[in-house]
Fold this protein.
Amino acid sequence: MRTKINVNLLKDFLTEEDFNQIDPFIIHASKLLLERNGRGSEFTGWLHWPTQCLGNAKILSEIQDCKKDIDAFSPDYIVVVGIGGSYLGTKAVYDALKDHFPDKNKREILFAGHHLDPSYHQQLLAFLEDKNFAVVVISKSGTTTEPAIAFRLLRALLQKKHGSESRKCIVAITDEKIGALRSLCDKENLRSFVIDDDIGGRFSVFTPVGLVPLALAGFNIEEMLKGASDAETYLCSHQKLEDNPALKYAAIRNLLYQKGKPIELQSTFYPSLSTISEWWKQLFGESEGKEHKGIFPASLTFTSDLHSLGQFVQDGLRVFFETFITVKDLKSDIEIPLFEDDNDGLNYLAGKSLSFVNRKAESATQLAHSDGGVPVIEIEIPDITEYSISELLYFFEFSCAVSAYTLQVNPFDQPGVEAYKKNMFALLGKEGYEELKEKLEKRLDS
Ligand code: PA5
């Protein structure tokens, strides 16, 4: 396993005794996952999916066929329509691997349906009006309102541009049998891929949910599956805390939670990895935050946030622990130039690389936060490639399930998401919600 966990700065916060105390609970939680007899075990299809998918020539060739057909009309943009687990994995991998500035050699992915802001969607449609684009609409349930509305808007634009040919620009990813999106696929003969019943949205990045849009944009999905599959093989076969970084991470999180640290900050000095933090927040937040328990996941991007929330982390309420995501080898670097006059006083750094400065800032921050009473963990990936990012994502999935089982909650459901949906349907006047509508409107008016 090339993803490493570094716990050197935890010595002041956790003892060997602490680890001995939690060890049996973590091993038990891991067994529940591996033997598929914990809560929600009907949703553990993701556990061995990367290896299964890598060995499944049919799925991979269907994705390649889809790519060929989409490539045939040379779209400049792929618009991914989805929310939560139906888009965050794709965005996490995409933002990590793409260039920071527009790259003419790559197909750009745009996102829609992940919120309801009218100005965003209005501007997206205006932007796409004279562009060639394909839509990948993703919804496991096929009934989620936000992506359903965005898809309707984009379909209207595609129909205006291409008439009956518009179906060729659409790929849908949804349940095999149920949901409005599946019915639409059947009625309009849309190309579609299936999300297996036993894989929940936030654990679906290595299924067609992530693989299809990333393949269409030109990323190497076989490398993604290899990274995830190697992580799967390693993590599923090492059942000792000292050998298994995912178990160790789950143990540390639960120990720190027990010691009064209910908030985990995921911090990185690499802005391209910040969307991985967004994906991680959904994964851990939706998996653990239930039954009035859970570690609240938050994220920071440094050094930008050192000039904002850094003050709070260093000196505010002591409720955090912090996990840094760091990278061993970067694909590009830049040297700081020498100025004879040294008017800005920076010549002591001349000839040094920006990565050297960034790393020193990272070490300085880790030490400062640790001294300020924030337990610090470091997770290091070897580089930013399809393989390594996928290894990291699988590492988090595995660790999240074990951590949630240790907290004694079901990692795979999300009952709390329904509350706002019911209210929204009622307030929007959806059939069947008349009584609730009346009650809610009274409360809003009073
Ligand atoms: O992890 C999950 O299951 C959720 O976040 C879902 O991905 C999200 O609610 C979107 O659901 P759907 O794919 O059914 O539209």
